[in-house]
Amino acid sequence: MFTVRPYKEEDAAACGDCFYEGFFSCSVDQNDKILLRDYAQILIEKCNFTCVAETEDHQVVGFICGKYDKRFSKALATQYETKKHYGRWCKIFLKFYLKRYKMSAPFQKQFDAFFRQLQERDKEIFGICDLELVALSSRRNYRKGLGTALVTQFMKRAKGDGADRVRLFTNTLASWEFYEKRGFKKVAEKPFQDGSGNQSLVYEYVLKEHEYEKHHL
Q1: Binning pLDDT at 50, 70 and 90, where does residue 157 land?
Q2: Fewer CB within 10 Å: C terminus or N terminus of the chain?
Q3: How many CB atoms lie within 10 A of CB 127?
Q4: Residues 6+ apart with CB under 8 A from 217
Q5: 3-216: what CATH class?
């Protein structure tokens, strides 16, 4: 069983661990964990809201973020539930681009590959949605209901805020099947620029249509 609650600032390191478990397979050292924590913090603070899932012994094992489109709601798009640390952001970005994070060689290789995957995303293929599901990480409790608990809470929030369409960006290297099993439909795909045969994917969940089907079938 998992409890899903709003993110707190002290969850940053645990969310960094979840980020690692969701996307990397190599071993990491303390310097690698500093980058993971900082990356998770920036990601979370860029979004309008974040929820974390924790176990009965209060260990954070997953998180999910939501980002509103201004065309859907200017009020919600400019409302942030997590404090933004702009000064810390600047220091993190500068440290990253000056290559001052002392990453281990195995983690550096995997992180570079992850970063290249992020650059495959473009605004045109992503399109317009009311609410973007930005991140869902952690395989520590894979197949134990963690992802379902987080997505269920996310959808409750989306419905409560009046969003019609939720979208997420992923690729064929990630667990996109999870979303298909939960009613998300693929609405766009694009081959990676490196010719590897992998695809960038956009999935969408239309809340109002699903509500209609539930009450009329």
Answers
A1: very high
A2: C
A3: 12
A4: none
A5: alpha beta
